[in-house]
Write a structure and sequence with these properties.
The complex is a heterotrimer. Chain A is mainly α. Chain A has three helices and one strand. The longest helix of chain A has 31 residues. Chain B is mostly helical. Chain B has seven helices and one strand; from the N terminus they run H-H-H-H-E-H-H-H. Chain C is mainly alpha-helical. In chain C, strands 1-2 form a two-stranded antiparallel sheet. In chain C, a hairpin with a 2-residue loop joins strand 1 and strand 2. The relative contact order of chain C is 0.08. The chains are: A mainly alpha, B mainly alpha, C mainly alpha.
Chain lengths: 100, 172, 681
């Protein structure tokens, strides 16, 4: 019997790590991975609450989050490839002009 | 008791993987740590009885999305991160802000939930029940997400195709 | 049922002419502009004649209501017009002389630029002057008062590209404003204490008040303040300084505005307010003193001036002083009589001077003239008539009016009479000085113009009225003015000769019809309780005067004629017989002469006392202090502040992804904190 708060703390830690990674990483792909980490943290809390309240829709929502994450990852990486082609760099600090 | 031990073990693994993601300089190392995190999370889901979600987590998330990440890292020859001077604001405002935000939310949630516990396998999420819900109550969102995926495919293909080439058109 | 004479047409007709010429005149030909101007001013004159013909059937005062203007509680001001004998006389003078001067101006200004503008301004002046004269309340009169000031400014500065003309216009307007300030305060006092500015109401409220003895009563204050206004408009001490400078304007303007009509507005206003003045003896004394001093002062300056128009300007100031003496001793009808005759001969003098200036191609210095009487005969003879009129030689017009004033002045105090007599002598002297210097002796101007044929003169006289003869540039020597200019001269000469005959006093066998005509106005019953000797009421002059008075009056008449003749002889002596004599006298008088020639340095005094401190203070406080440091600075600093704020915020938009993420995280924390706080409250 694990208290629900333990799951929530774990979820929070994962989310915080994701935000920190977003803030301190310079490689754009690493930043993307931090975003995935954040999403995973949130998924955990969804499932935890679904178990607590016996509402299966929590798990359904996790399913949808995963679908969206997949789509987002696909498109995002395509964008990264496109930017890399013109800028020749993956360093996010060097891509700061709106004009390509 | 075993429930708690398993939870703690894989929880620690999650956190270790997350921290490693932050610490590593080469993106491939970060990607692999992320895979570890996802695997541990799958176990946590199993502990909560979400079988279908755990399976989907491993197959889709760790198996497809992360593979995609690794492919892209390879494609772009991403090397170790350069140490460029970033933004002071991010460090100055962002991290404290994030800390404050997460602490607050955590505190609220924990206070609300108090000492309620969840048993292992509390809510069986069998594929049959999930599927039934998905195609009955959540049919519309399901169809919308399928369109979303279609759009994502088209977008990815267009964006990543070589300029001045008709490759994107010819692929289905 | 009082007949409706449509009095409002009288001012409005010239206004219509002004509007047409003002807005459309630029596209008209000169003939059209002149026709429009003459048509509308002539129509006003015709209207006045019509009203005059119907006058005997009216009950006076005849008031016509046009529209309500202000209604504020119990206080009401209307656009309504007031016709009685006084305003009828003023109307005839203004429209009659005005119309003649319009005709003259067509010829005089024919070659000038801005022809349409001149006539638009002239008609605007007529509108405002007629409003002033016909107004039935002080506020409408004030509108006319201000309006003629405006028209005067516009016309003095008509050649605005000349610095001196523009400055003269400004000076006239500003000095007038000082007077208007006094006028306004008087109006405020009237509203405060009588609740109305309507003539009938004010005079009815004032009538029962006993005359104030000693200084500081309400009516005295009102009277003194009204006199301040009149001093500004009618160029009395200390506000006369604008009138000599106003000669920068074209000569018809000097004739109409600064001789015949506008400057007389002060006299009209004081006469109209005689009900107030008669109950404030101290104010009347002040009026008389100001008039006396001004008459003497201006006459002394006039004898040294060399510009022909300046002499006439100082003469105007001096003659206006006479009118105020008359008002000050209570002889209001004598003042109006002199106003009328003065309009005739002074208007004629100015127009003839314009003709002279036209003849010698723009020269205005009398020292460059001389011997012109054979070359410009019409101008010479008309100007001669005017000079005799102003010198007070019988039977010309000025004699009767000036004599009336001197006689009444004597009855108040011999001091007024003596100074007035001396001034009459000075007047005669400087006018004949002008006459001799201009028309007699040898021609002293630039030689080539003097030898042109006199056949030219005849050719010019035969030109069609309306055809131009350029009066600026050398068209060929000294020539008579075109008929369009000569005809008004002749008509005014006739009036200067005969105009006094309606006021022949009983002592000389006449019946003084003028005074009897104005009698019903100035015969107001005064409640005198030990009234002071200076406020002598109008006397009955319809022949019942005791015979003993006539002897003294005839004696004084003789003395004043004698003074005029002495002036003539002295002028003949100094300027015809022995032309070197004046210079020797001037050299002998040294500093005194210098002071008089420089107009007693009054302009310099005013400049030091008022003008320079005002300009310095205005530059320091208003310009640098308020305009630059407050208004400009606030706008500039506001803009700069906005600039700086946006400059500092601009750095947020760096394009750096991580800083954006940082801001988002911080913002999210704030929002979460807020929600938690709201949730736990």
């Amino acid at each position: 019997m694990v208290p629900i708060s333990y799951y929530l703390i774990l979820s929070g830690i994962l989310f915080a790590c994701g935000v920190t990674g977003f803030l301190i990483k310079r490689n754009i792909i690493s930043i993307f991975m931090s975003i995935e980490l954040m999403l995973n943290g949130v998924n955990l809390s969804f499932v935890a609450f679904a178990a607590q309240w016996h509402a299966l829709s929590g798990q359904i929502f996790v399913f949808f989050v995963m679908v969206v994450a997949a789509a987002e990852a696909a498109v995002g990486l395509a964008v990264i490839i496109a930017v890399y082609r013109t800028r020749e760099t993956l360093n996010v600090d060097q891509v700061d002009l709106l004009k390509l | 008791m075993t429930h708690l031990i398993i939870f703690l073990f894989f929880g620690a693994l999650c956190v270790a993987g997350a921290v490693n993601l932050l610490v590593q300089r080469h993106p491939i190392n970060s990607a692999l740590s992320l895979v570890v995190v996802m695997g541990s999370l799958a176990v946590e889901y199993l502990l909560l009885g979400a079988e279908f979600v755990a399976a989907v987590q491993v197959i889709v998330y760790a198996g497809a999305i992360m593979v995609l990440f690794v492919f892209v890292i390879m494609l772009l020859n991403a090397g170790e991160e350069e140490q460029t001077k970033g933004s002071r604001v991010a460090l100055l405002f962002g991290i404290p802000g994030m800390l404050v935000g997460s602490v607050l939310v955590g505190w609220v949630l924990i206070e609300r939930t108090g000492s309620q516990s969840v048993a292992a396998g509390a809510l069986p999420g069998a594929p049959r029940t999930i599927g039934w819900l998905l195609f009955h109550n959540f049919l519309l969102p399901f169809e919308v997400t399928s369109i979303l995926v279609l759009i994502a495919i088209m977008g990815a293909v267009v964006l990543a195709s070589h300029p001045d080439s008709d490759q994107g058109r010819k692929e289905s | 049922m009082t007949p409706d004479l449509h009095l409002w047409l009288i001012p409005v007709l010239p206004l219509v002419g002004a509007a047409i010429n003002g807005f459309l005149g630029k596209k008209f030909s000169r003939q059209t502009v002149a026709a429009v101007a003459l048509l509308f001013s002539g129509a006003a004159f015709a209207m006045v004649l019509f009203v005059a013909s119907r006058f005997s059937s009216l009950t006076t005062p005849h008031v016509e209501f046009l529209a309500t203007w202000i209604r504020a509680g119990a206080f009401q001001v209307d656009f309504s017009f007031y016709l009685d004998q006084l305003s009828l006389v003023m109307l005839l003078v203004v429209t009659g002389v005005g119309f003649l001067i319009h005709i003259y101006s067509v010829g005089y200004m024919w070659e000038e630029g801005g022809f349409y503008r001149f006539f638009a301004y002239l008609n605007v002046f007529m509108f405002f002057m007629l409003t002033l004269v016909l107004a039935s309340n002080y506020l409408l009169m004030f509108i006319g008062w201000e309006g003629v000031g405006l028209a005067s400014y516009l016309l003095i500065g008509f050649w605005f590209t000349r610095d001196s003309a523009a400055s003269a216009g400004k000076k006239a307007f500003i000095v007038n404003r000082v007077g208007d300030f006094g006028f306004l305060i008087a109006l405020f006092l009237l509203i405060r204490h009588f609740g109305s500015l309507n003539f009938e109401q004010v005079f009815q409220s004032v009538a029962p008040i006993t005359p104030e003895s000693g200084g500081a009563g309400l009516l005295t204050t009102v009277g003194l303040l009204l006199m301040v206004g009149a001093a500004g408009k009618s160029a009395q001490i200390p506000l006369y300084v604008w009138l000599p400078d106003a000669m920068e304007g074209p000569t018809p303007v000097s004739a109409l505005i600064h001789a015949a009509t506008m400057v007389t507005a002060g006299v009209y206003m004081v006469s109209r307010s005689h009900v107030i003045f008669e109950r404030a003896p101290m104010a009347l004394t002040v009026v008389a003193i100001i008039g006396t001093l001004t008459a003497l002062f201006a006459a002394t300056i006039g004898i040294t001036q060399t510009d022909i128009k300046r002499v006439l300007a100082y003469s105007t100031v001096s003659q206006l002083g006479y009118m105020f003496i008359a008002c000050g001793v209570g002889a209001f009808s004598a003042a109006i009589f002199h106003l009328m005759t003065h309009a005739f001969f002074k208007g004629l003098l100015f127009l003839a001077a314009g003709s002279v200036i036209h003849a010698v191609n723009g020269e205005q210095d009398m020292r460059q003239m001389g011997g012109l009487r054979t070359k410009i005969p019409w101008t010479f003879w008309t100007m001669t008539i005017a000079t005799f009129a102003i010198a007070g030689i019988p039977p010309f017009a000025g004699f009767f009016s000036k004599d009336e004033i001197l006689w009444r002045a004597y009855q108040a105090s011999w001091v007024y009479w003596f100074i007035g007599l001396f001034t009459a002598f000075l007047t005669s002297f400087y006018m004949f000085r002008l006459w001799f210097m201009t028309f007699f002796g040898e021609y002293r101007g630039t030689a080539e113009e003097s030898h042109e044929d006199s056949a030219h003169d005849l050719a010019h006289d035969d030109t069609r009225a309306g055809a131009p003869a350029p009066h600026g540039q050398g068209h060929g020597g000294i020539h008579e003015s075109p008929r369009l200019m000569v005809i008004p001269l002749v008509m005014l000469a006739v009036l200067s000769f005969t105009g006094g005959w309606i006021g022949v006093p009983a002592s000389l066998g006449g019946s003084n019809r003028f005074e009897r005509f104005l009698g019903p106005i100035f015969h107001s019953a005064i409640v005198t309780e030990g009234g002071s000797a200076t406020a002598a009421p109008e006397k009955e002059t319809d022949g019942h005067e005791p015979q003993t008075g006539h002897g003294t009056e005839l004696l004084f008449t003789g003395i004043s004629v004698f003074a005029g003749l002495v002036g003539f002889v002295l002028a003949w002596l100094l300027y015809y017989h022995d032309p070197q004599l004046p210079q020797r006298i001037a050299a002998g008088l040294g500093g005194l002469y210098e002071a008089v020639v420089h107009k007693y340095y009054i302009d310099e005094l005013y400049a030091t006392l008022f003008v320079k401190p005002l300009i310095a203070g205005s530059a320091l406080i208003l310009w640098h202090g308020i305009d630059q440091d407050v208004i400009d600075a606030s706008v500039d600093n506001g803009a700069q502040g906005a600039n700086e704020v946006s400059d500092s915020i601009r750095h947020m938009q760096s394009g750096n992804l991580r800083s954006y993420a940082g801001w988002v995280a911080a913002g999210a924390a704030v929002v979460i904190a807020y929600m938690v706080w709201m949730g736990t409250r």
